[in-house]
Amino acid sequence: MAADDVDSPAAYLAAQLRKSPVYLSDQLPRTNPLSARPAFVKEAKRTGVPTYVLVLPGSGVRHGKGLLAAVHERLGKDGLYLQFGGDGGRPEVATFGVDVPARNAATATMYELPYDAGTLETFRHFVDVLRSGHATERAERGGEAGEEPDKLYTSRTDRADQSFLTGILLTGVPLLIVAVGWYTRRWRGGKWPGLRLLVPVAAATALVIGVGAPLVFDDTRSDGDPVPTAADMRARTDRLARAMRSGPVHVDPLAAGLLSRGELGRLRKRAERLDVPVHLAVVPLDTADESAGDGELLAKKLHSRLGSRGDGVYVIADAADDGELEIVNYGAEVDSAALYDATEDLRFGTDEESRGANDEAGDDDGGRLFSRLDEALRIIDRLPSAPPGDPYLDPLAPDDPVTEDELPALYSGDFGPGTLMGAVAALAVLGVTAAGLGIARRTGLGSARRIGLGGASATARRAPGRAGRGAASDGGTAPQTPARPSTGWLRRTARRELEELNDEFERLSDTLPDAARTRVWDCLDAATLLLDQEGDNRVDADADAPTLAAGLALIRGGRGALDDGRHRRGSGTGRIRLCTLNPLHGPATATGKLKLPGETSGARSRSVCAGCRAALHVRGTASPSTRAARTADVVGSRLLCLRAPGAARSAPYEPYHRVPGPLEAPRGVGGGQGPTTEEIVRRVREQLGVH
């Protein structure tokens, strides 16, 4: 069923609910595969009332309370209606003709579940709350608590910590038993168990730790989403391929309404008149789909599915406001490089100037989408003929849907460094024990029975295991940061790194030069002011993505200043320039020529981090077009993009320097040379009225 077969997504969804009370979009196989529908149906039956469930991607569908009402009106059946996004979160609920505390149950679910709960787990918890008879009380109690619940699953970072701790325990505890026991026996003149007993006890302890650690740290996946099958992963591709065999233009039913029937007809006529085959699809693109939200990869999968009859130019449009537009050549007789260059300005949505002009003219989002698609077809029509070509840039393969959420083995990664730290800690405790017993002997504090090992045990507990890991992080590489971070990721990362920087600064401040101490303090102070405006010593729960990103950029700039001061590097001028492509990469250490989206001038030299500089590097013999393509690819994949303050989860991502907030570039400046921590600190203080 295509968009022109239904007048709205609501009509399409109502038709699907007539077949089954649970509709899972085939566009979310990585988190909510079609094979998981029976589990959702089982939970829907537990509510005790007729229940209709929609699990939809974040783009395409016009979300909100009106959608459920429109679906109910077309379906004509009373009951409990729920709408979930692809990654869980608070469900949208509506009741028609049934009396259940659905809104309170949804509110309680939001407060009682952490961020890593998946859609099925969220639905299951919602039903449990609904059936408990205490939905109202639990919703009120959750609103008063104000505390984020503990995570349900182990992240990859958590697994690294677990491996490190296991390594410390596996070597440290047995060595501690043998070493301290041996020394105590010597100190007491042989009146203590010898090695014949100590070694078996140490070996038994190591066995218990070695066998017990995997039982305690038994998570194998970083989330609880159902694992997709091969059929789940190809369901949408097969559906789109069938639709595209019948015509050159296809609009997904969930995107119905983005293009009017007249606009759709004009696009079809223009596509049919072209000298080269064109396959145009308007579909939601989500990181949970089979292509991980990459339109170029979806085009590759569609061409593979259609075979040689599918040769042509593929135009894949994200069904979102100002969504990305991917235009890829698979076998059409046009120059792929010329196609890429000519359509570059269409790829990232409308710029601010065009958007303002459209708004004044009264165009809605669909109007802007139509104009971009129409312009893309015009450009294709004007391109000169060439031998059948391939994509200008081959898309990267996505993560395997099964293994992407699998955790590394416990005895891998940081386990090796942990074993070394355990041995060092055991020797340190032995030294403390020897010193303590030596002092006791020299001062005549009494027999060994009066001394004990309490002090040594306390020292073992304070062994600087984490400090050993922190030291390994001074390698100068940019922190791992997604180009389109979610608000949840930004909040969690800012909270963790703010605590770490506070601890490090408190520990090392006395050893830093005055200039470095001032720079770190300025970054730390401004980040704290920005992230904790409520003054409760926690990152504000309602902080938006631009605020969180600016705070995290200050934290990482402060980390760079601390590392420079600790190693006596840096000029001490107080200016720390951050990476232009992504300020969350931390301080810039090099320059590279690049052009940011929306800029009309050519590429120019900008400050970047070492990782971005390496990504931009092209061998000296490369042609200018190869260099330009490489630069565009790097900018597209590494440029920090954020959602505007107050935007819905379905809203598009924008380059950070265009988003209102502390990282926004001054009007008319574009991306500039990358923000400095000094500029961000000044903006934060001015914004909050702190001088």
Question: Can you tag this structure with a few keywords?
Answer:
691 residues; alpha/beta; 4-stranded mixed β-sheet; 49% helix; globular; coiled coil; transmembrane
Overview of this protein structure:
With 691 residues, the chain is α/β, with parallel strands linked by helices. The chain contains 24 helices and 12 strands. A 4-stranded mixed β-sheet has the order 1-2-3-4, sandwiched between helices. It has a 4-stranded mixed β-sheet with strand order 5-6-7-8, with helices on both faces. β2, α3 and β3 form a beta-alpha-beta unit. The chain is globular, with a radius of gyration of 30 Å. It starts with 8 loop residues before the first helix and ends with a helix.
Beta-strand content bin: 5-15%
Runs in which pLDDT lies below 50 for 5 or more consecutive residues are 351-366, 446-476
Please give the number of β-strands: 12
Characterize the quaternary organization of these chains: single chain
Characterize the overall form: globular
| Main pleated-sheet profile | 4 strands, mixed
Spatial separation of the terminal alpha carbons: 61 Å
Helix content: 40-55%
**Spatial strand order of the main sheet:** 1-2-3-4
Mean pLDDT: 84
| Helix/strand class | alpha/beta
Radius of gyration computed on alpha carbons: 30 Å
Q: How many helix segments?
A: 24
